[in-house]
Amino acid sequence: MNNVWVFMEQNHGKLQPIGLELLSECRRKLTQDTQISAVYFGEHLTDKDKDAMTFCGADEIICTLDSKLSQYDTHYYAKAIENLMKHERPDVFLIGSTLQGRDLAPRVSARLNTGLTADATLLEFEQGEKLLLLATRPALGGNLFATIICENNIPQMATIRPSIFKIEEDKSRASTLKEVPFVCESTSKVKVLHSEKLTHKKVELNKAQVIVAGGRGVSNMFPVLKDIANLIGGEVAASRAVVDANIEQKDRLVGQTGTTVHPKVYFASGISGAIQHISGMDKSELIIAVNTDPNALIFDVADISIIADAKQVLPLVKEELKAILAYK
Ligand SMILES: Cc1cc2nc3c(=O)[nH]c(=O)nc-3n(C[C@H](O)[C@H](O)[C@H](O)COP(=O)(O)OP(=O)(O)OC[C@H]3O[C@@H](n4cnc5c(N)ncnc54)[C@H](O)[C@@H]3O)c2cc1C
């Protein structure tokens, strides 16, 4: 039987959505004769997290529980994966393209002497006697998409960007649990001396239902964009040009090197629509774009195109929203 493993990332014991996103996508794309396993490392595994993995499509949960694994540590986590792969090797091993995943995956692939497609945005499988992973990722500065296949070595590995795939649960599903002990004679070379909570609250653009985004064309209008976002309970986002100019923080960047978003409404002003930006927002349900250039690429993905000067449009939008809200 073919099998696919998905690494379940946790942070301070809290299961991260990326693992569930990958399980859901695998379950959608793979038939029942491919076994999907969720691989979890930590100190404890709660019933709630077990259920979440099962309902999202794991046929099997493989877990290694040890106090050394309570927090992410490159050395211990890579060792734990190596331990598992001594007994069996899956055809495919998927890891989120998060800070943890980007650190862990290359180390594991080098140890297992296999290839790794980093930062994939699309997964396809060819199911036959041999299961083949086709992982697609932006290449050459995002100007084209390359589909990469690693036919000759297993596991075929890829890291996948978070927030691309929808989490889908089916509560009728069941799974088996396999506990594998943690064996590691060496001590980690990494010693955490001190950890500090971010004082600046990280914006979770991927959860926003309404996004009011601005690009270089409106770089001096971010206070107005913020007012509009506040009026409608949305979040402000920005293009790379704005983030590079230090007008907005990196966690508000949308696109290939920022966050992938899929809000109900994406209101884009003064953004040209470079492929690197589009690839992070084109799954939005309704895209409204304002640009002075009728040939701006953003209009290719917009549902509503407004060819106008955003410096005139934005204050009008703000006043109109205020009037509507006052009337309510
Ligand atoms: C490897 C790589 C990764 C990248 N990753 C990202 C990424 O993740 N996200 C990202 O955004 N970019 C990314 N980029 C950069 C990307 O290629 C573009 O350079 C960037 O998106 C351009 O930002 P912009 O649209 O704000 O600026 P510009 O391209 O300069 O566009 C400004 C737009 O504003 C319009 N405009 C000007 N004045 C007005 C006005 N008064 N009213 C209305 N419209 C007006 C103009 O017509 C123009 O279309 C990446 C590039 C590379 C090479």
Let me know the average pLDDT.
94
Cofactors, ions and other ligands in the entry: flavin-adenine dinucleotide
Tell how many strands the DSSP assignment holds. Answer: 17
Overall shape? elongated
Number of helices: 9
Rg is: 22 Å
Family: Belongs to the ETF alpha-subunit/FixB family.
InterPro entries: DHS-like_NAD/FAD-binding_dom (IPR029035), ETF_a/b_N (IPR014730), ETF_a/FixB (IPR001308), ETF_alpha_N (IPR033947), ETF_asu_C (IPR014731), Rossmann-like_a/b/a_fold (IPR014729)
Pfam family, one: ETF
Domain Electron transfer flavoprotein alpha/beta-subunit N-terminal: 4-202
Note the main attributes of this structure.
DHS-like_NAD/FAD-binding_dom; binds flavin-adenine dinucleotide; ETF_a/b_N; seven-stranded parallel β-sheet; Electron transfer flavoprotein subunit alpha/FixB family protein; 328 residues; ETF_a/FixB
